[in-house]
Amino acid sequence: MSLDGVVCQAMAEHKATVIWLHGLGDSGDGFAPIVPALKLPAELGIKFIFPHAPIQPVTINGGMKMRSWYDIVSFDLDKRADEQGVRESAAKVEQLIENEIASGIPANKIILAGFSQGGVIALHLAPRFKAALAGVMALSTYMCAPDKFSAEAIQTSLSVLMVHGSLDEVVPMQAGKQAYDVLQSNGLNVHWSDYPMAHEVCGEEVALIRQWLIERLS
């Protein structure tokens, strides 16, 4: 089953695509308003895709059904991400990337971004994808199966932007730092920034994202 979502078409000729994955219980609509806030140059021709995660029961929320990229059975970091669910969602997002490539957008003009749960999928998929993407944006997130990264990652020169809130009580910053350390130790080009914020996106972060996207997609 293919993912549906919100699409913000490029303001000029379509030259690049950003696929942006939301967090637990949110939807593609949640991040779509960031497109006008980024004020990106129209000539970059960036199309944004904000897919909706599948609706499924989430164990830590009493089995309530909500949009979720994978089940969360425990708040413990080493058990938080359901690996099978991560891999299943990564396969669905991979199809979105393949669709963009088939439409004529090269892999090196595609950014995979994600917040929280969405960032877990982005960090899992991009290094394992068959072609090198323009970059990965991992916001307020962590890594699934860090012990398998070295064996499975094939794109080890990937550029990664990681941003985290030092006051985040949902995904503690230490969880993001662990992912950062794994990426760095495997040779990826990782930029880390943190801000005194909770599990959210702040204005300074939006400015940083804008600059990074321009650098990666110009």
TrEMBL record:
The keyword Hydrolase applies. Residues 7-213 form the Phospholipase/carboxylesterase/thioesterase domain. InterPro entries: AB_hydrolase_fold (IPR029058), LYPA1-2/EST-like (IPR050565), PLipase/COase/thioEstase (IPR003140). One of its GO terms (molecular function) is hydrolase activity. Keywords: Hydrolase. Belongs to the AB hydrolase superfamily. AB hydrolase 2 family. This is Putative phospholipase/carboxylesterase family protein. It comes from Pseudoalteromonas tunicata D2.
